[in-house]
Amino acid sequence: MEYRLLPIFTLLNLALVAIHAALPPEVYWKSVLPTTPMPKAITDILYPDWVEEKSTSVNVGGKGVNVHAGKGGGGTNVNVGGKGSGGGVNVHAGHKGKPVHVSVGSKSPFNYIYASTETQLHDDPNVALFFLEKDLHPGTKLNLHFTTSSNIQATFLPRQVADSIPFSSSKVEVVFNKFSVKPGSEEAQIMKNTLSECEEGGIKGEEKYCATSLESMIDFSTSKLGKNVEVVSTEVVEDKETGLQKYTVAPGVNKLSGDKAVVCHKQNYPYAVFYCHKTETTRAYSVPLEGANGVRVKAVAVCHTHTSEWNPKHLAFQVLKVKPGTVPVCHFLPEDHVVWVPK
């Protein structure tokens, strides 16, 4: 079952930012990491696409939020509360709004405590991202499908705002109310899944953290690796279709780190949340790829050298036909995931 994530989530993000007038997340990045460029996966979700439109408006009935933002129109006006005339949601976000789809029942393939499901094996595009480290050399041909998160519209909230919103299964009803999510809906179940994954313990040797703001991601990653870091993400160079196709590894494969890295995976939530985990049994690579249709990808790959603690029925083992702890298991990162490595 799939659903369309409401654009209202992104619009509410901007409204909350305007209301609280918090310090922009990119300012904090520059203060902590002045010589480290932001990867595209992060810059893409600093602001909603619709701020570039000539006019944008949203009205949430009842005690919702009313926003009007326009270029050359005197800035952004925000009204909170008020007496809306209806109980529904009316959104105009310009032509850039695109439908997005999320699978309700699937677990993240990048969380290694989970067994794979039949649905994932047949339908999850991330299946095609797993490979063996021995194949990471020029000339290797791989069938791959690069994806972005199913909620690409979910943008970062400043930490001041994110910290004011409960992020807990025990208070999920409060969050539903804040974002006008109906309990029992598919949106509600997906939010519950994300909270559950964030609250579960990690595997042995893994330090796990769910960052609800860019600032908290910076703090976690630099506390584990120091501030002399490189932060990278997968980038599709040409604006071409990147569905499942055959890619060839081109010359220029580059190892980015020793065996230490923090990898952050974007989650399905109304605003940007990243599941980050730090291990000392991980090697990261920059891998140039050339697709059969001519598309070029600057891919980031992560290879896990110690998999004996993973669930024996994890998706990677099912796809690669190997057993835990036998060989390094690798995967390319979707476009909206991030890797932090020491320089």
TrEMBL record:
The keyword Signal applies. SMART domains: BURP. It comes from Glycine soja. The lineage of its organism: Eukaryota, Viridiplantae, Streptophyta, Embryophyta, Tracheophyta. This is BURP domain protein RD22 isoform A. It comes from the Eukaryota. Residues 1-21 form the signal peptide. Residues 130-343 form the BURP domain. The keyword Nucleotide-binding does not apply. Keywords: Signal. InterPro entries: BURP (IPR044816), BURP_dom (IPR004873).
